[in-house]
């Protein structure tokens, strides 16, 4: 029997936004479809002064709108975290859509039953609202960039109890980006890592793992549809912006999961991506293993990733003095029509 509403913890859902009207309503609608008690949920939009209908849409769904004056998305998340009143914190991006109405209920219950785990990670599932390219990046690659995909350690499956899966990284590495796109934390764990002062979405989980909480959870077949980008050109633009954002964050806190003993060093991952043979091998392997022709996009996304990252380094070096540089580089994100 599910616990009574009054016994459930309060959940704070944090969403950084900037001119996200094309995708935000889809995201917020999926949150309001959750079967978790609405009176136990709060939605915090850390908005970087959008000039479109983003704030209007947020208010329509009952979100609390916070003015984000920072120069990157991490500052917006820290702002929202300081205002959050929930015992559980969910970080959601505007380009996410929660796949199942029971996701929050199951995630909160899973954390309560697994005190050794520091959070719940989403599966990235395909959707009719995304192109084949978007589905390749998110549902097949999971980490929406071939360079990062190569540098990420493969998590190890421990056990499954019903819908709840337990995962851990191999000994000796922390090279795996965790913490965004529907990730659920306990607020107390975030406070222990001083996340309200130094939050970076892929690094708080690393801090917690280094402090001994090595295990996290997934819910079988549940997570988010991640509408990262729909086209190859938008992907290049997104990688440019992501690189600028990464370099700017490094100015504040030089912590980098890609230096935590990755399977492949950065230089080799870049070389792999600009050759034909490396991507061709993984394309063929993916098609045979998954029987999914969308792996063909790997041939094009691999060199495009390097091009976008190099463009980002060049852009950052020439424009690092601009406070709003990350915001200015935001590519338009849409749903498939």
Low-confidence stretches: none
CATH superfamily of the largest domain, by name, is: Spore Coat Polysaccharide Biosynthesis Protein SpsA, Chain A
How does CATH name the architecture of the largest domain? Alpha-Beta Complex
Main sheet properties? 10 strands, mixed
User: Total number of β-strand segments?
Assistant: 10
Query: What fraction of residues sit in β-strands?
Result: 15-25%
* Helical content (DSSP H or I, runs of 4+): 40-55%
Oligomerization state: single chain
Q: What is the rounded Rg?
A: 19 Å
CATH hierarchy, class of the largest domain: Alpha Beta
Q: What general outline do the C-alpha atoms trace? A: globular
Any idea of the CATH topology of the largest domain?
Answer: Spore Coat Polysaccharide Biosynthesis Protein SpsA, Chain A
Question: How would you state the average pLDDT, rounded?
Answer: 93
Distance between the termini: 41 Å
Structure, explained:
The chain has helices at residues 21-32, 54-60, 73-83, 103-113, 132-140, 146-151, 187-192, 195-198, 204-210, 232-252, 266-274, 277-290, 298-319, 325-328; strands at 11-17, 41-47, 64-67, 88-91, 96-98, 117-124, 156-161, 164-168, 183-186, 215-226. The chain is α/β, with parallel strands linked by helices. The protein folds into 2 domains: 5-128 and 154-228, Spore Coat Polysaccharide Biosynthesis Protein SpsA, Chain A; 234-328, no CATH class. The protein is globular. The N and C termini lie far apart (41 Å). The mean pLDDT is 93.
